[in-house]
Amino acid sequence: MAEQPPNIEEMNARSREVFRRVVEGYLESGAPVGSRTLTRDFSEKVSAATIRNVMQDLEYLGLLGSPHVSAGRIPTELGLRMFVDGLLEVGDLDGKDRETIDRTLTSNDHDVTSVLDQVGRALSGVTHGASLVLTPKHEAPIKHIDFVSLSRERALVVLVFADGHVENRVFTPPVGQTPSSMREAANFLNSIAEGHTLSELGSVIAREIETRRQQIDALARDLVENGLALWENKGEATERLIVRGRGNLLGDGESETDLARIRTLFDDLERKRDIAQFLDLAEEGDGVRIFIGSENKLFSLSGSSLVVSPYMNADRKIIGAVGVIGPTRLNYGRIVPIVNYTAKLVGKMIADRS
Fold it and tell me: Which domains does the chain have, with CATH numbers?
């Protein structure tokens, strides 16, 4: 669990202003902020020595750190958390950003995943970060299911939904499967699947297999259970994640430490092994959530921040999420309203299409 920052209200006005200016300066430039820089436009006339003393106190509290021998300071993760929770001023959504995001949803493309891919590209473009879009599972009732043998090691399941949507997925069939066992499994599934969504089908199949265990042979039952694992995407949730704009994380003049951090992040994004947690992060609270550095369960080793918000369907059920990932010195005040607006727009698009 992340360490709790001091209460911002317990700081005096001078300490609060020094802290705010150091954080804002760092978020803007990415460079340490020194006492002489602060004295030039401080709200009251104070010496650089006084400012340095305040900065040392803030460093003692764990809110600021010294990356180099120089007198400049940068905020720690604890400091960034306190700034985001207590001092962050969230701006209004820029008109051009709004237009860019709106244009992605005026497409006549009926494929939701394709539209969400366009949303991801737009989100990456306007934020200059990497965008993450978790697409919803298809939740229309199932109309028909077929198994097709492709080879001894490969088979295809064809899912036809009541709304006309069709999904084809290749999987490894159980050893010893035969065309007859596949037909029997398909017939069994079609006898119980119609009218149920994929999410509902798991429990329905479990009940039916238990009550009709003697009605299907062992190979067909094995095939049903194997197929079920595929349809629920166990271990394959990564296919639902769209990542765009990774190149935005590579800026000019990055230090070796920054490049190593970004390479770690790229590796995380490539593997996407913990993406099932992405929606969990979004579901833990309403609206936009900000995860800074080690708070970020998905990319805790990369020194990055994640700004994420869930989106809902017409039934107000959370079905996916959108987010932006970048360095901890993200422009949070600008990115929060962008992510918030995008999530609401995606939710409305999903609801309208359903």
Answer: 8-86 (1.10.10.10), 95-137+240-353 (3.30.450.40), 142-231 (3.30.390)
